[in-house]
Specification:
Elements lengths: L1 E4 L2 E5 L10 E5 L6 H9 L10 E2 L2 E2 L3 H8 L2 E4 L13 H11 L4 H14 L15 H13 L5 E4 L8 H18 L2 E6 L10 E6 L2 E6 L1 H7 L2 E9 L1 H11 L2 E5 L2 E7 L3 H11 L4 E8 L3 H13 L4
Parallel strand pairs: 3-8, 3-9, 6-7, 7-8
Antiparallel strand pairs: 1-2, 4-5, 9-10, 11-13, 11-14, 12-13
Helix pairs in contact: 3-5, 5-6, 7-10
């Protein structure tokens, strides 16, 4: 898939396939191309190259995009997007149900289930504009699900909400996948959400940096993470940055990703580089997906030997 805005290339050859019943993730920083990809799949944005097949339909025209829209649930990025501030929770749900032509007898039961699942039942009469950020996102999800879509497309649904609401949102999505077998494409800028996905693609500058299961991407980073406390920290940080390409300070600890070696060799290399410093509590830790992302990106942009 390719998409450009005038001279700016937003998406450059992104390619992936979503299996039925899985939650597939698109992870990357702002400007990586996630929203352009999702809007193209949802049929609301024209693209410049490649092909998109959604639910067995080749999306290559406005007519084909219209054929699949009723089978999709697309939630735009941003708190409360597409919702109506003056309407109550229930009025918003009813509006989207009528828009999607949901039969009244189906609507009543589906609305009851979704409001109970999202814990919005007791806020039925509250105007949308008076909801918290997390509650707005839950209401957005209910309105996206009310017509029983075959594919959910959720563009950064947890951005801008508090940590508890983020956790609640993922619990709801996981329950939907477990109990109803929904298929979902979800984007996020939060690397710590990677474990929520069955498979994912990491995007950077419109390209796929890595793709696969979370553990597979971690293995692809090839290296070991060493954490330590050391005094004086600033001088030790400068020394480590002279030797290793990926070093960061996190509170009173330093984290060093050592390329292409196992845990014992990495720990010895870090200790040896700080032989003149007072090192405490040096140990090997499990790298995060963010560590892997930085390592993979660094290797792509660093010049070869």
């Amino acid at each position: 898939l390719c998409k450009r805005y005038r001279k700016h290339i937003a998406v450059a050859g992104v390619d992936f396939e979503i299996e039925p019943g899985e939650i597939y993730g698109l992870i990357g920083p702002d400007g990586a191309g996630k929203s352009s990809v999702m809007k193209s799949i949802a049929g609301v944005l024209a693209f410049d190259g490649g092909t998109i097949d959604v639910l067995g339909v080749r999306v290559d025209s406005e007519a084909s995009a219209e054929r699949i829209k009723g089978r999709l649930g697309f939630m735009l990025q941003g708190l409360g997007q597409n919702l109506y501030p003056e309407l109550s929770v229930e009025e918003n749900v009813d509006f989207f149900a009528r828009l999607r032509e949901v039969p009244e007898q189906v609507l009543a039961e589906r609305k009851r289930e979704l409001l109970a699942m999202t814990r919005l039942e007791r806020f039925r009469e509250r105007p949308m504009k008076k909801l918290s950020g997390g509650m707005k996102q839950k209401l957005g999800l209910v309105c996206t699900l009310i017509h029983g879509p075959e594919l959910l497309i959720l563009d950064e649904p947890t951005t801008g909400v508090d940590p508890v609401s983020r956790r609640d949102f993922w619990a709801i999505l996981s329950a939907l996948q477990r109990d109803r077998g929904i298929t979902a494409l979800v984007s996020t800028a939060y690397m710590d959400e990677a474990a929520r996905f069955h498979r994912l693609s990491i995007l950077h500058a419109g390209r796929v940096l890595a793709a696969g299961e979370p553990d597979e991407i971690l293995r692809r980073a090839r290296g070991s993470l060493v954490e330590l406390s050391v005094e004086p920290q600033i001088a030790a940080l400068d020394r480590l940055q002279e030797v290793f390409s990926q070093v960061e300070a996190l509170g009173d600890r330093l984290r060093v990703f050592v390329d292409d070696v196992g845990p014992d060799v990495a720990a010895s290399a870090v200790a040896e580089s700080l032989s003149e410093f007072e090192v405490r509590d040096l140990h090997v830790a499990e790298p995060s997906l963010e560590d892997a992302f930085v390592a993979l990106l660094r290797r792509r942009v660093e010049p070869g030997p």
